[in-house]
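INTERNAL AUDIT FORM
Audit reference: QA-55
Scope: verify that the stored structure record matches its stored sequence.
Auditor: D.O.
Record contents follow.
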Amino acid sequence: MRIAVIDFSSTALSLLVEEISGEMMSSVVGLRRSVSILDYMNRKGRLSERGIEKVIDSMRYLIEAAERVGAESIRLISTASMRIISNYEEVADAVRNATGLDFDILDGRDEAYADYMANREYAALGDSLLLDAGGVSAELVDLNSSSRKDMFSLPIGPLALFRRFPGMYPDADDAIAIRKRIAKIYEKNRVYPGRIFSHIVLVGGNAEALYSVYADYFSLPESSLRAMDRKKLKKLIKHLLSSEERSMLFIRNAPEKVHTLIPAALLAYETASHFSADELVISDKGVKEGYLRILVEG
C-alpha cells in the first residue's frame, strides 16, 4: 500500500509518499511548499488568519498530489511549528474543517526519535552524532544509542538563531555571538559531555541547502556520499559573512533559505567543533521517513 506523510514545520510543508510492502519501503514522490509561519505570527505567537489560509492552501495542494499517486492513507504530522503557535487549537480546527485531517503533534524527543529511526544506519560510520538543523529547534541524537532519554531537542534551530540579530545576513560579530550561544546551550543541557564524534550527520532542508552552496563554492562533482570537511566549512562561512558574492551563491542554490543558511552553517560548524568531528555527512532522510518507519515496525 501507499502511505503519505505531510510534515508541517516552521518553514515549510512537505510531502512524502512511500510504497510499503511488509517492512520494505520505497519512495514514490516527495514535494515541498515553502511557508514560513513566523512571517504570519505576532509577538505573542498567534498565527494570523492569512497565515492559516496559506497553510491550508499548501496542505490541500500536497493532499491532492498524494491522492493523484494513489496514497491510500495520509498522515499529518507537526513538529516545532505547532509547539510555538499559541492559537494551535484554532489552527488545528481550521485544518480539520478544511481537509478532514488531524495533526499528530510530535514533541522534541518524538522528533529526535523519528530522525534516529530514519538514519540509524549511519552508526556504521563509527561514533556519529545526528543534527537535525530544522527551523526553530535543533535535534541531536547519538546514533549508537536508541534510548530516547539520551536525545535532545534544543531552541537553537537556524530560524531561532536568525531572529537574534538584525538584518538579512549576520556579520562576524553576530557569528561569534551565535556560536557562543550554541556552545552555552550544549553545556547547560549537558549534551554528551566529554564525547568525541567522528561524524556529524546533518538532516533537514537547511542541511540540503547548505551542502548545495558548499558544493557550488568548492566546485565539487556530484557524489552519492555528500560530505563536508569542517575546515572547508569554516572557509565557506567566512565567505558568506563578508563577501559581496555570497548573494549569487544563495540565488543559485537556495533562494528560499537566504535567512537561515548562514545560521545553519554556524550551527553545523559549531557542533562539529564542539564534538571534534572533522566530517559532516548530509542525509536525505528525516522526520517523515522515520515516522513511516515507526508505523511500519510498530
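Auditor finding: record pair retrieved intact. The domain at 118-282 is CATH 3.30.420.150 (Nucleotidyltransferase; domain 5).
Action required: none
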